[in-house]
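Progress against Task 2.4 (sequence-to-structure conversion) is shown through the following example record, which the project officer requested during the mid-term review.
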Amino acid sequence: MDAPHHPRRRYLSDPVCGQSVVGVGHDQLTLKLCKPGDQLTPAAQAGLKPGDHMVSFNGATIGSWDDAKRLIRSHGPGRVKLGIVRDGKPMTFDVTLIAQDQPNLEDPDKIDKNVGFLGVRPTKVMEQQSVGQVIGYMGEQTARVAGSIFNLPDKMVGIWHAAFSGEERDPEGPVGMVGAGRMSGEILASDLSDEEKIATFVSLLAGFNLAVGMFNLIPLLPLDGGHIAGGLWEGLKRAYAKVMRRPKPKYVDIAKVLPLTYAAALVMMIMAGLLVYADLVNPLTLTN
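Structure tokens generated for the chain above:
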């Protein structure tokens, strides 16, 4: 089967005036037209083109946009060898960086003096991933969702404070159906391309389905996990009795845990109502 498309970061160079647009990893650039008399960036002067994939800087491997920024800025002005891939062919360019004052990467309010400047920026392209990469990605997502469910009680405390004390919503916290609907509207109203909107929306929908499915496996009634737990316990009792040559045990009566079921259902209804209220009065949006 075909693997889904997924945005990946690429460091590409795009010669433009004032700054070049570049990608690292898997991002593509847009070209800005130069006006007469505009000064070209070092990237443009060196001959970098839209779609160039930056892979090394003075022999150091570039694995992320953060790597590229750190290497360029820390080098300062001077001549460097920039390794790129253009149309599948590796190439090396001699580029002379210039010095510029740039905002600090950790604190934008601070200005770093005379850091190296190449004149590139990353954008994103959609690339089809292999089945192996998709499996790895789903493994990471499953682990994150499992961790979120484990920390759900603590997260709900944060939801309470956000709803009634005006505290900022945790971007890694739970979101109800109202919040999910709001995010879907944000995606549709955004400036993303149609392809990016579809990919983001499908990813969001898949994430919610994964979270709901895993939550349903919690071994408490009335969730499916509670019924599964009862069946497994009965199976273990019968297997033990068979091995030990004992009489066949009675069926597990899950009705005995009905009080716990009622309590769990009440807690779930309270959590759902709290999420709806928090999503209305202090929503978590994609922009913040």
